Amino acid sequence: MNPCLDPAYIVKCYLNDPDAPKVRELVQQAEALHSSAWCVAEVPCAIHRRVREGSLTPREGSTLRRLFLEHVSKGLWTLFPLTDVVLRGVDASLDSLPSAVFLRAGDAIHLVSARTVGFEEIWTNDRHVLQAARYFGLAGRSV
């Protein structure tokens, strides 16, 4: 199994969020872990949010951000490049997206990235990504 993970799931590998044990079990069973390079910005921001909210100290947040980036550098996370093809694919996808579908830019980047490199599913607990996935030709999966 080589899952494509949304940053919401990557964060669960570093923080004790709800469903984190189930996500870690999924990750431990995987042969390789994939995501969009956009997660290099999104995951540290999610960790910083926990510092801002007070559930992590600044020192804990800094340690977790460094650990994540170290894992990226060592190749634990196989990241799809953020290319012009992906960015233009986001725009092209909007032509067929129903207006009622809630979609953030970062989520669209992850969905288009997964589709562009040939994935058929994306793992997340983000309800918006799960709902939008089918419009990108992907199955939204959750533990």
Description:
- It is a single chain.
- The chain has 143 residues and is mostly helical.
- It has a single domain (7-141), classed as Rossmann fold (3-Layer(aba) Sandwich), CATH 3.40.50.1010.
- It is 53% helix and 10% strand.
- It has helices at residues 7-12, 20-29, 39-53, 58-73, 84-94, 105-116, 127-132; strands at 33-36, 77-80, 121-123, 139-141.
Properties at a glance:
two-stranded parallel sheet; Rossmann fold; 143 residues; two-stranded parallel ribbon; single chain; globular
Any idea of the CATH class? Alpha Beta
Anisotropy-based shape: globular
Task: Give the full name of the CATH homologous superfamily.
Answer: 5'-nuclease
Helix content class? 40-55%
Give start-end ranges of low-pLDDT stretches.
Answer: none
Class computed from helices, strands and strand pairing: mainly alpha
Q: Which fold name corresponds to the CATH topology?
A: Rossmann fold
Question: SSE order in H/E notation?
Answer: HHEHHEHHEHE
Q: Helix count?
A: 7
- What is the average of the pLDDT values? 96
The beta-strand count equals: 4
* Biggest β-sheet strands, sense, barrel: 2 strands, parallel
Proportion of beta-strand residues: 5-15%
Number of domains: 1
CA(first)-CA(last) distance? 14 Å
Could you give the order of strands across the largest sheet? 1-2
Work out the radius of gyration: 15 Å
CATH architecture tag: 3-Layer(aba) Sandwich
